[in-house]
Amino acid sequence: MKNKKGLIAIIIILIISCSIINSSHKEKQFNNYMSQVDKLISEKKYDEAKKQLDSAKNIKDNDEVKEKQKIIKFNQDQFKIYTEGLDLIKKEDFDSALKKLSEIDEKAEDIKENADEKIVICKQKLIPIKINEAKKFLDSKEFDKAYSKINEAVSIDDKNKQVLDFKNSINTKKTAYEEEQKQIAIAKKEEEDRIKKEKAREDEIAKQEQVKEEQETQQVLSNNISDETHVYWTPKGKSYHSSPGCPTLSRSKTIYEGSIQESGKFDPCDRCM
Ligand SMILES: [Zn+2]
After folding, report:
1. What Rg value do the Cα atoms of the chain yield, rounded?
2. Among 9, 52, 79, 148, which residue is least crowded by beta carbons within 10 Å?
């Protein structure tokens, strides 16, 4: 009886110590997995970290495991943004890269640090590009577009002396250009007024000449109409003359005289009529 009890006690002790050994072994294994997980996260090997965490979870599914799952997911997402940013830098799309890298959360610690270094590079690349684009617009007098470009540069780095100097030079050139345009407009207006006056004067002269011409025509007609007008002509000449002394008749031997009708000519002499 006494022996039996002793045996049971020994068996119980054995079972307890086995279970203690076993549980301490499992605890050790769990901790081992968890430290592997941390190491893999820091190495950004997230898929491997997940596998190690699954192994740990099989031993113990506690809050620590759940927290680690969240940390892996968070870091994996942040790292994805970071690699997308790097791809954009490779494609020299620094604008988009800058935007992408700025999305990274400060809690992502070393990823955030790396991203910040890349952001500095993006800014260094972008500033001269923006200034250059602004310069092209400035050269073609597209001031609004030039401002918008240089303001993009200001938003990247509002203390950059080169950027601020360039913005000032846009201001100066715009003012000068506007003044120049004003002067051109004034000169144009003056020229238009001058042309208008000139035209009016020419019109007036033309009108006067027309009146004079009409009067002369009237005179000639009235001269022509009168059959009584006494004129002179030669047999072969085509015109009639008002006087036998007309220079065009100086070499003519035969000079007739009478009315226009009698002369049978229709053309009054250009010299004497
Ligand atoms: Zn004549």
Report:
1. 55
2. 9
Distance, CA of 239 to CA of 255 (rounded, Å): 12
CA distances for 203 relative to 187, 189, 198, 211, angstroms: 24, 21, 8, 12
CB under 8 Å to 42, separation ≥6 — which residues?
110
Q: How far is the CA of 54 from the centre of ligand 1 (A)?
A: 131
* Model confidence pLDDT, tens digit, residues 33-42: 999 999 999 9
pLDDT at 222 > cutoff 70: no
216 Cα–ligand 1 center, Å? 17
Give the distance (Å) from ligand 1 centre to CA of residue 208: 28
CA of 231 to the centre of ligand 1 (A): 9
- Supply the mean pLDDT for the chain: 91
- Cα(64) to ligand 1 centroid in Å equals 132
